[in-house]
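Section 4.2 – Deliverable D4.2 (structural model, holo form)

The reporting period included a commitment to supply a predicted holo structure for the target in complex with glutamine. Inputs used:
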Amino acid sequence: MTDAPSAADLTAAPADSSKGTLRILQLYPREMNIYGDYGNVLVLKQRLAWRGYGAEILEYDAGDAFPDDVDVVVGGGGQDSGQVVIQDDLQAIAPRLRELAEDGTPMLLICGLYQLFGRSFRTHDGTVIPGIGVLDLETRGGTERLIGNVVATSEEFGEIHGYENHSGQTFLGAGLEPLATVTKGAGNNSEEKHEGARYKNIVASYLHGSLLPKNPAIADFLLRTAAERKFGSFAAAGVDGSRADPARQHAGARPR
Ligand code: GLN
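Output (structure tokens):
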């Protein structure tokens, strides 16, 4: 691959950022970044660049100073052991994350961090990892792993494609809306056919893959929301859709 981005490319400002630059914060890339989750940040950056916006990628790992002026927050998945490693640090930055969430900052939270934005995660061996309670949900580790390709439908985003691999079974509180209804796979748990959660400008999901390359409607929701909050408008045109459409078709045709 000649066009694979180098580490320097990922943090450098793109050539054309004439419309302004969004600051995208990736939470815990060392521990919470599996099954290609970092690709979500690359999609946001590329979709901004096509439109003449810049993206400044900020990475926050345990012990770092929490950055100011965050426009989008992105968090990925991780092993139960990784979730244990970050738990104390996550509690330390919880007030900042709560403030950002309640203020309407767009966030994409995948799998392990989706679980930890809830109230708590009791793993299959009985360890209780406290969450930060932004999302009214509980997760319990089951004996069965929920693994495979997922298709789910949402009124807001259409058909959503991704890949799940988790033992946690997540149950939403009465007032919290799921992101989508599952038509293939499990999603939040093995009973309800719900996938993810939707709160304020947060999109939370079990789906890896990465999620955003195959689901540009979600990417553009995050970008539009962030740009309108920061600049008062969003210049949406200019995107090259020639890769996302075949990727969605391919993903939809995969077996469970
Ligand atoms: N460790 C969590 C679970 O198994 C999250 C897994 C993930 O992020 N893929 O439920």
